[in-house]
Amino acid sequence: WLKKASENHTNWKERYARVYFTDPLRTQSALSYYTTDKVDTKEKGHLLLTDTITYYCCEINDLPTVLLILPTRTWIFSFTSSVLMDAFCTHSLQLMPQGKPIKEGFMKLGKRKQYVIVLSTGYALLFRTKQCFDYEDCFNLTTVSSVETDINQNSTEHRLILTTNPYETTMAKHAKKVQ
């Protein structure tokens, strides 16, 4: 059993999860989740674990939690104990790069201040507060094509302007697929 955050990361639901291989060579794995642990229960949803780009372990609402960064969505699962979370990560995500925090702190993004955790895997996670239970978004820093700094003359604020070139982003995705 685990707790799964909804797609917009505002609601949490208890789900029974099964992890399994999807191919005979046992190179592709998936997670399916259900409302009950009965054998004939209809699947509520699933995700391909082998599509995980990176993952990050933290505590949310006093529960060991893993954020799985996939190309189209960030999945958030909380476990009743760190032993269960560690077992899930060890057995299900063993080939995926775990993001370790290399820098974290508050950053003003637009008009709002957000807590940012930059991971060793090149992703930045955005939260509304430092407690991490209010995850908002994730962005890939490796697609940044230029970085500019700007100092606001009226305050002690330093601005960092990150831009991406759509062509370079597409080519980087293509190169990754080829690898």
What does this entry show, briefly?
The chain has two helices and 13 strands; from the N terminus they run E-E-E-E-E-E-E-H-E-E-E-E-E-E-H.
What is the CA-CA span between the terminal residues?
36 Å
Q: Give the overall shape, derived from the CA principal axes.
A: globular
What letter string, H or E per element, gives the SSE order? EEEEEEEHEEEEEEH
Structural class: mainly beta
Number of strands: 13
Number of helices: 2
Give the strand order of the largest sheet, numbering strands 1, 2, ... along the chain.
4-3-2-1-7-6-5
Taking all residues together, what is the mean pLDDT?
83
Helix content: 10-25%
The profile of the biggest β sheet is: 7 strands, antiparallel
**Cα-based radius of gyration, to the nearest Å:** 18 Å
